[in-house]
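The pair is quoted verbatim as follows:
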Amino acid sequence: MEEKGKIMPEISVIVPVYNVEEYLRPCIDSILEQTFTDFELILVDDGSPDRCGEICDEYERTDTRIRVIHQENRGLSAARNAGLDQMSGEYVTFIDSDDVVAEDYLELLFNCAAEYKAQISVCQMYEFQDPEMLLKKAAGTGEKRVISGQEAVLDMYMDKKEVPVNACSKLYHKTLFDELRFPEGKLHEDQARVPRLLFMADTVVISYNQAYGYRTRASSIMHSKFNVKRYDDVEAVEGCIRFFRNHQNVRVADAAVNRRNKLLALYTLFAYRDHVHHEVPKKYRMSQYQALKYLYKNLTDDQYTYQLAKVHPTWLLPHVYLRKVKRMLGIKVPE
């Protein structure tokens, strides 16, 4: 059994738990095996219908750093918020209950934040399905980049993978959550809050080392048939647009507008592909032609080809053929 640490730990680790009985133990074990030990682990059982609640209680009995919160099912945001309301650390990080972190995940993020006096530190994520793909220690050259929070938001909206929109893989100073919580009852809660958190941070340090393992599952939201609830994503970005405009930052607001328009175009194509376009809220509806035209004008050719392959693979061959003909005729093709 672990000895009690300080009353106020340096880091609070919040893990929302729901219906992940198969994956929960590897997640918790990876946290308890951290080289950085001054943390509390808050497991929030969000009314899970399987044995997750029992597993959480079992771990709580074996390690005094663990606290378990049981609540009725209210969703990921509510579970995170419950953890935030109970946390006592100087910093906080979120880990999804089916993911796994390297043993030096907390050490890496904490040292980055401390060295550069950053309100947010970020490490890189990697996807895995097979446990053999997991990294025991963070992998990379150790290279870092220190930028302002506003620069971090711009990088995120430009789809630079080093600053993902995910709430996970980041360490936040507790003061960023003084007046901010995740929106309940919505999908894509990260899209609604992470840009604001980054924007409010004076300094963000990015480590290029991979230390957060993101488990890919066929049953996850991002791998299922398109659901019009995904438009919560667009609504989340629109909330950020208003936030940035209220803070009179035109550059960041414009970047958010571009993100919203790109999402609208992509979701239009997904909705038509899965024959649910008639369910799309009227204010977000556009034709396939409008969507394709927007993406063609605002993505690189490689990005456009990639998205086309995802939403309408049968259209890919004509597109590639037309691009080849245009180049033969000397007609400029977007790079």
